[in-house]
């Protein structure tokens, strides 16, 4: 099991050392070449100064000015040198003549001979720039190569982390299986173990939650069913015995049991439709036909409240989804609209489609919901106004929470807003086709 830190440090140091050595070697070669040229030039000047029988002015070709004096008499000067002495001081100095600034060297080896050589300062600066450029150029050229090599090395070193990230990104919400990687580096090994341990703990927690909600709801069904039967029998016996119930105790008991039974059913549905562990069976279905079935199921209650319900828009709307979950979604929306809309009210369903979405709108002309409550009504067990809802209708506060979970399960969106009627609520659900 190798270490990413050790790998990166070792490889990068080796690459920097190699590239720096190659760049320095190239700079050394360039500098030596320029130095050799300068030394050759010095030899040519020396040869020119010692020979007075040449016909070509080599000093002029090299851009130098040369004077040779014997016993105070000028015996030789190059074309660029003036007739007067270029310098009266021994050694190096700087003077102006010929419209330029010169670096002058005067040497008097004996009392008879004096040699004076001058070179333009601009030429010297140019030669220095060339040497410096020759030294820096290979280093600059090596920088892109270093960057490419570093990118390749770092990419290779971080490839296990990229594979780890890709596996995490590809996991579905209900997939808590361990992540498996080959050749895990030391720095990633502990992270991988911790992540897999977290998945294991989450899996156990979800399974316990699922079993708890399901077991509690299942275990409560039986005694509630027995209680409903006994309450019904007791109510019949009271009626046959002529026992009056002026305070409505029996009716309150029956209403409470019915509410408890409905709450248990909602809890089981909420647990079943939880996106974290719902196993969707996706199929191609007709959302319009599904809406017609839901309207038919709710029609007795709607007719009993003398409400009007209509289904507008597309007669067929095909999409991929879970038939049970989508039917439950439409049923909760229609049921809420019917329960909280007054007698004689209107409920409207409308189906439409965009290029990639199916759109279901359910609205009514009931009392509606205040805009500041739109986000809260999706919370579990939350009801506007609490248990004392202004409509007087009993409820568990789980209907819209279930609807939201189903929308999330299908990767859709849900929005609440004011109805197109004079009052009421409009629910817009968008589902991918």
Automatic annotation (TrEMBL):
Report whether Mitochondrion shows up as a keyword of the record: no
What highest taxon heads this organism's lineage? Bacteria
Q: State the annotated membrane topology for this chain.
A: Multi-pass membrane protein
Gene Ontology CC, one term? plasma membrane
Tell me the CDD domains matching this sequence.
HATPase, HisKA
UniProt-annotated location(s): Membrane
Chief location bin: membrane
**Domain named Histidine kinase: which ranges?**
215-433
Spell out the PROSITE patterns in the cross-references.
HIS_KIN
Could you cite one Gene Ontology molecular function of this protein? ATP binding
**Which InterPro entries does the annotation name?**
HATPase_C_sf, HATPase_dom, His_kinase_dom, HisK_dim/P_dom, HisK_dim/P_sf, Sig_transdc_His_kin-like_C, TCS_sensor_his_kinase
Query: How would you classify this enzyme at the top EC level?
Result: transferase
Which keywords fit this entry according to its UniProt record? ATP-binding, Kinase, Membrane, Nucleotide-binding, Phosphoprotein, Transferase, Transmembrane, Transmembrane helix, Two-component regulatory system
Q: Which reaction does it catalyse?
A: ATP + protein L-histidine = ADP + protein N-phospho-L-histidine
In short, the EC number is 2.7.13.3
Pfam families, alphabetized: HATPase_c, HisKA
Q: Which PANTHER family match?
A: SENSOR HISTIDINE KINASE YKOH, SENSOR PROTEIN QSEC
Full protein name: histidine kinase
Which organism does this sequence originate in?
Rheinheimera tangshanensis
